[in-house]
Amino acid sequence: MAELLYAGAAPGLVAGVLQVNVKVPAGIAPGQSVPVQFAVGGVSSRSGVTLAVR
Q: pTM higher than 0.70 for the full model?
């Protein structure tokens, strides 16, 4: 599980944009499209979201 560093407003962007900063666990294999999912207030992100990990 990733460590949550920040979740809130995205400075400089329009109201309603959510910025989420996390620390990716060391055991995650690198790749261009690593699947990711998170939940805020019991509502999960949509499926198919990916993150590039180096």
A: no
